[in-house]
Amino acid sequence: MNNTFSFNRFKNLLLNDGKMYIRNFGTSLIVFCCLPAIFWIFNLLFGSETEGAVRLGFIAIVVVIAMMQVPSKVYGKANLSREGIGFAMMPTSSLEKFVSMFIYCAIVTPIVAFFGSYLIDAFLSIFPFGGFEKPIHLYSLNELVGMMNDSEGVIRTGGETDFSVKDVFPIGLIRTGLYVGIIQWAAIFMLGNMLFKKHKAGKTFACYLGISYLISMIMGLVFFSGDIMKRWINNFSDLPTEQQITVFHNCMVWSLVVSIIVTIVLLFFTYRKIKTQKY
Length: 279
Hints:
By secondary structure, this protein is mostly helical. The protein has helices at 7-34, 37-46, 52-75, 85-89, 94-124, 141-150, 171-195, 200-223, 228-237, 241-276; strands at residues 154-155, 163-164. A two-stranded antiparallel sheet has the order 1-2.
């Protein structure tokens, strides 16, 4: 039954995981959603004001932290020898367990954390005190690209030719990159939850920082040492504008492809760990 998928079983599993989600993470999620009140209280005490961009950035941080915590809070017992027996004995397939875990960690949590925090922020902005003059304006990606177009944003190439940001950052590519980034962040901590026995979120984040640092060091040694980068910049500056745009665009596409592959690999190993977990 490991690879089968029944919608009736999955529906029951989703409801059961929903109850577990509320029981184990509901209070924490409410606390996360109320964190924007910290700025409001600070402003109230010191008579200051917090800009909408800062508040929006803080909400993004809240979402990131909530996504780090949810796998261990809701599914923390899934890989434990004794406590995980209940997870293992559920009359559902490994695929159904994985899909349900993915929905709550990668879809439900970021949506609820973001809009919950935003609604709290918007509610506090009603009061004439506290430094929240108005609700945060949630710019759509289309609006952001339009703003870049209106401001005639340019990319400096180091040569005589600069070109518009809108030529390099298509809206579809930006939207796809955002979604992939959210799913990848969830996938990292889903896998960490199934690998580590204790301090799951902390160990996963430490591994993430260590691997990121190692990759950056290798990339720096390969591309930024010696004359490699200097020759590349000189060659790039000599290219026609159309080819420069193509190079930037291709770099974005390939970085997105790599991110998608990494995300798929993380999710695959999470599913495999669920399927092969020994108790």
